[in-house]
Design a protein that fits this description.
By secondary structure, the chain is of the alpha+beta class. It has one domain: Alpha-Beta Plaits, CATH 3.30.70. Helix content is about 35%, strand content about 35%. It has 8 helices and 8 strands; from the N terminus they run βαββααβαβαββααβα. It is globular and about 55 Å long. About 30% of the residues are buried. InterPro entries: Dimeric_a/b-barrel.
């Protein structure tokens, strides 16, 4: 699977969310679409950019994503929507890092309510990526034993060799509440695990604003 994660700047989050939903519902009718989630930032820690929303769309293959992207550009119904979204996205395309056994696209339960999704944007050089991944797996193992931890998934960029691509990983972690999250990270054990990367995190505590599944007509067509 391929994940297309867009970090979104906007001065009008409700309007951008409506535009996102229109585009994502178009995507939901395209072959290979797995799921789409729009996350709304509720609090930030060490942010490098002012991202108000995060779009997480999952596709079966990169070819499916590219075909759907082209179809959206050619769709007359989206003529007035796509220009409004242009320039607001910091696009990230990634795959699930080896060893991440939790997939929010399939397993995520934080669709509504008080659950919190942590969008952790990691800025690294390519040479530090391996060490970061090792640290992340240690941190994930530690958190898996903490109350209120639902799961996490580490997404690694498919374009790591590009020096202009500073975002090498995006970690999506789900918690029952942000209060439980803060209690879990404020421990000597966790601080020791992440100490070498403490300045590389840019955290966006979020809630799920919208979840889009594949359109029913497309799912029925695939079944026949």
């Amino acid at each position: 699977m391929i994940f297309v994660i867009d970090l979104i700047k906007t001065v009008n989050a409700p309007e951008t969310a409506r535009d996102w939903e229109e585009v994502c519902r178009f995507f939901s009718r395209q072959p290979g679409f797995v799921s789409g989630r729009l996350l709304e930032t509720i609090q930030t820690l060490h942010p490098k950019e002012d991202y108000k929303l995060t779009s997480v769309c999952c596709w079966e293959t990169d070819n499916a994503w590219q075909a759907a992207r082209q179809a959206a550009k050619n769709d007359a119904g989206l003529t007035n929507v796509l220009p409004k979204l242009a320039g607001k996205f910091s696009a990230f395309k990634g795959i699930i890092d080896h060893g991440s056994d939790y997939n929010p696209a399939k397993d995520g339960v934080a669709d509504h309510g008080d659950q919190m999704v942590l969008v952790d944007v990691i800025y690294l050089t390519e040479g530090r990526m391996k060490a970061y991944a090792e640290m992340w797996h240690s941190a994930n193992l530690y958190m898996s034993n903490r109350p209120g931890y639902i799961g996490a998934c580490l997404h690694v960029t498919t374009n790591a060799e590009n020096d202009s691509n500073k975002i090498k990983y995006i970690n999506l972690a789900e918690w029952e509440s942000k209060e439980i999250f803060f209690a879990s990270v404020d421990t000597p054990e966790f601080i020791e695990i992440i100490k070498d990367f403490k300045n590389d995190f840019s955290l966006y505590l979020s809630k799920v604003a919208k979840t889009i599944k594949p359109a029913a007509e497309h799912m029925m067509a695939e079944a026949t």
